[in-house]
Design goal:
This protein is of the alpha+beta class. Helices cover 23% and strands 19% of the residues. The protein has 3 domains: 139 residues, no CATH class; 113 residues, Outer membrane lipoprotein wza fold like; 65 residues, wza like domain (wza like fold). The protein starts with a helix and ends with a helix.
Length: 397
């Protein structure tokens, strides 16, 4: 008996939902938020586990062999040649990606491995009749891997052109012309992401793209995140990196790592009683800098919004002003401090914070009533004193 096609669609949708690949939402412990309310939550509350979304085989990442450092403009090498002292010396790759050696035409070496550049130099020497013995020993070793400019776009906190592997302090060393060998750990993929502010929590780790000379290579960043030892591409001048977004907040990226920022700054304000000013609230510079993965409860504790007399302070409220990094929409949300602490594990009540978020504390209704009574007393007491003075009441008391 043939199955109903609509039945198959329902079953397929159910399986996707169970796999965690349905529309993301975060349900409150009290049922306060539902699936239709997800757009009203701050971005730090629109969470979804990273591990539950497998990569589509149609867009499975490739395995490019890009982990070995390749020559880029500014890279400096030392050339030695058996019975060819006139060619020996220190050479730097020009801005056009070519190496210029005396008596030889410019040699295009950009993007080549050191071994490939050495073979090309040998071939050029033989072609130009500068080397009669093709078997002569030629040495080419790196002296300095230069800084490179890379364009990073997509799901990072500070997209744009970044400079990585800045070696200015090495270039000025007195032994620069004689030193041999170099290592540049900051000229790799992860360094460019860190220079661009680090990955946002909505970054699609399995679909990062490296664009070099018009050719695209898909890079899977998940092994770099969990420390499984996968290699990462070495970068060249002019490379472009694109990090697509999955469209929701992934809790596994809300932590310091080699790909995410170690921390960020937020703005705190606590003018509530019993702290009438930020200075008296002890909101110093360190209090406004929180590690990646911090939640609203951490900001409230840093601003001294939690604690104190339970009768007057337990029902304080907090305002969170945050910007959605995908839509660039700035929204504000009000939370009860009591619910934030009671349901601290629920992102709907205790959302994750993002860089440049602003958090402000407000007094409870008990404190407001008390302040109104004090204000009324401050107004009425002088009036009563003036009335009694005018009537001469003080003379007869």
């Amino acid at each position: 008996m043939a199955r109903n096609p609509s039945f198959r669609l329902v079953i397929g949708a159910l399986l996707l939902s169970l796999a965690g690949c349905a529309v993301p939402y975060s349900a409150s412990s009290e049922g306060k938020y539902h699936r239709a309310d997800v757009d009203r939550l701050p971005f730090g509350a629109q969470t979804k586990p990273l591990m539950f979304c497998p990569v589509d085989p149609a867009i499975a990442p490739s395995t490019p062999h890009l982990d070995s450092p390749r020559l880029s403009p500014g890279d400096r090498m030392f050339l030695t040649l058996e019975d060819g002292e006139e060619f020996a010396g220190s050479y730097a790759v020009g801005t056009d990606g070519r190496l210029r050696i005396p008596y030889l035409p410019a040699i295009a070496v950009r993007g080549l491995l050191i071994e490939e550049a050495r073979d090309l130099i040998t071939e050029t020497l033989v072609t130009e009749d500068m080397l009669t013995d093709a078997g002569a020993r030629i040495g080419l070793v790196p002296q300095l891997w230069a800084a490179v400019q890379v364009n990073v776009s997509g799901a990072v906190f500070s997209p744009g052109v970044v400079v990585i592997n800045d070696r200015t302090h090495v270039e000025t060393r007195p032994d620069m012309k004689t030193r041999s060998g170099d290592f540049a750990p900051d000229r790799y993929f992860a360094a460019a992401l860190r220079a661009a502010g680090g990955l946002r929590p909505d970054a699609a780790l399995a679909r990062a793209t490296l664009i070099r000379d018009g050719r695209e290579s898909t890079i899977d960043l998940r092994p770099m995140l969990d420390g499984s030892g996968a290699s990462q591409p070495a970068l060249l001048q002019g490379d472009r990196i694109a990090i697509p977004s999955v469209g929701y907040f992934q809790e596994q990226l809300a932590r310091p790592s080699s790909l995410t920022p170690p921390g960020f700054r937020i703005y705190l304000s606590n003018l509530s009683i019993p702290s009438p000013s930020n200075a008296q609230s002890s909101i110093a510079g360190e209090a406004t800098r929180l590690p990646t993965g911090s939640r609203l409860s951490h900001a409230l504790a840093s601003a001294n919004c939690i604690g104190g007399t339970q009768t007057t302070n337990a029902h304080r409220s907090a305002l969170l002003v945050t910007k959605n990094p995908i839509t660039s929409e700035v929204t504000s949300h009000v939370y009860r401090v009591y619910e934030v602490t009671r349901y601290a594990d629920d992102p709907a009540n205790n959302p994750y914070l993002l860089p440049e978020d602003a958090v402000a504390c407000f007094d409870s209704s008990v404190s407001v009533v008390r302040d109104l009574a004090r204000g009324a007393l401050d107004v009425l007491l002088p009036i009563e004193v003036l009335r009694r003075i005018q009537s001469g009441g003080f003379l007869y008391d």
